[in-house]
Design a protein that fits this description.
about 260 residues, alpha/beta, seven-stranded parallel beta sheet, two-stranded antiparallel ribbon, 9 strands, globular, binds 1,4-dihydronicotinamide adenine dinucleotide
Length: about 260
Amino acid sequence: MRLKNKCAIVTGGANGIGKATARRFAEEGANVMIWDVSDEAGQAHASSLRGIGVGADYMHVDVTDTVAVNSAVAAAHKDFGRIDILVNNAGILRDGQLVKYKDGEVQKLMTDEMFDAVISVNLRGVFICTRAVVPIMIKQRYGRILCASSVVGIYGNFGQTNYVASKAGVIGMTKVWARELGKYGITVNAVAPGFVETDMTASMPEKVLEMVTARIPVGRIGQPEDIANAYLYLASDEAGFVSGATISVDGGSVTGT
Ligand code: NAI
């Protein structure tokens, strides 16, 4: 029961890594607020978490919407009396090359919309949610802010200008906030997952999947629970001296294989 009576918000907590994280936190005794835009899955997950005996609720919260985020923070604070942990997990992909050039011609560009959509959820959303909870955490003199980066935020990746910019930006914001907020008992860390089996990666062709797996030193792709366990460690009291870090959870891909 490493998170007994703690109160956690997990953005994008209806599916994939966020869903596994919300469950892992609940199993360790935390009350959990799931924020997502995937209403049916979010409601069902909150109800299943209540079944294991913790407080759990779902709210439709788009992390790009400042007004919605601020009012959801106020509601969560009212319900739970405190907010101990924020997991900035919500994220999207809109992949494409900066310039796709073939047969002597420009075939496609990454559009402004593709760039802005990904930055808006993956980077601006992290900023909006963190800004909303920090005043409460400062008053409590306690907080754990956790942010979803990615192995590609460290290494870059073909076809992911927008996504890589957002995930590298998250690493930067994590370091800034660790410096600014440490004196209030708030730690801020990022997790950089490698390839994890979720809806986000489900559309990948079988052949590419095999190639990706072959390059992972531990010989398998990640499961959402692998990442949830890293978030659990960072959220726990055992990680009280860890701040400003980006922890790679990628089966060894960080070695650059
Ligand atoms: P997923 O697509 O399975 O789940 C993402 C969740 O975020 C969904 O429930 C979706 O409805 C929600 N979401 C999307 N836009 C939202 C918004 N504007 N407001 C609130 N919720 C929103 O994705 P997955 O794979 O679980 O990824 C979770 C995080 O981990 C993301 O930030 C992703 O970039 C990151 N990540 C994932 C990796 C992977 O291989 N799956 C690798 C590295 C990082």
